[in-house]
Amino acid sequence: MPIYDQSYRPYRGALSSHSMRWWTITRTGIQQLLTKRIFLILLTITFFPTVVFGFQIWFTHQFPDQQLITVNAAFFRLVMEIQLVWFIVLGIFPGTGLIANDLKWNAIQLYLSKPLTRIDYVIGKLAILCTFLLGVTLVPGLLLFALELGFSSDFTFIAKYWWVPFSITGYSVLASFGWAMVVLALSSLSKSSRFVGVMLFGLVLLGSGFGVFFAEISGYTGAVVISVLEQLKLLTYFFFGGEGDFQRHDLLAFLALAACVGLSALILRARVRAVEVVT
């Protein structure tokens, strides 16, 4: 075709609303991760505890005389607490590279040269991580509840624990959002995803250690909220009832998590820019 016959061809496809432009980042990020075999293996492993809990529920109903577990609110609280382990794993991979890799290759400037705002970019990245975090908390919790409900021979269980699915949903959303914000903030602090992974692991390890240390020397168990993961563990008691080794500190855990989210938002605001600021 001669060059003089080539003319500008405008985009004739469907235009998405501005409020959903972040979804392009999320969809692409999820699709890319699901093409990685190692990540698929990791996702499969995250469901092993759910399979074990499911087997216990089945065994308890098939052999009532040899009851392995009691399925109540405390059972689902334990499920949520155990699944928090995968928050660390998913925080390191893929969480640490979500923004760090973009900083490394100067891709943020490319993103923001499109009709995307910084908020669109952050929400898109946040939704990628939240999707998988909800996959290891919300999905297993609701599946186990449905399994117990299916094996129940009467309405006693649903009449007593009808509120548990709402607690599972509320806790999963809150915990996933809070943890994802912290991970994204750390990811924005360096161009090396490996260094961010070390920072995240140190935050978990040192945070928990210092929290327990200060709780012991001060005699005030609420000091454990120094650790983000301990905040999330304490919040399981708010949603499902009961009391753990560090007693109930619902308000303090909420305030500590809100402070972490707020600090993370400030870090993201400073680090995610169209022009890199070299200091």
Describe the structure.
It is a single chain. The chain starts with 21 loop residues before the first helix and ends in an 8-residue tail after the last helix. Helix content is 70%, strand content 0%. By secondary structure, the chain is mostly helical. Helix 4 (73-83) packs parallel to helix 11, helix 5 packs antiparallel against helix 12 and helix 11 packs antiparallel against helix 13. The longest helix is centred in the last third of the chain and has 26 residues, at 193-218. The protein has 14 helices and no strands.
Keywords:
14 helices, mainly alpha, single chain, 279 residues, globular
**Run of helices and strands:** HHHHHHHHHHHHHH
Q: What can be said about the biggest beta sheet?
A: none
Average pLDDT figure: 88
Low-confidence stretches: none
Number of DSSP E strands: 0
Helical content stands at over 70%
Total helical elements: 14
- The gyration radius over C-alpha positions equals 22 Å
Report the β-strand fraction as a percent range: under 5%
Q: How does the helix and strand content classify structurally?
A: mainly alpha
Instruction: Assign an overall shape.
Output: globular
C-alpha end-to-end distance: 51 Å
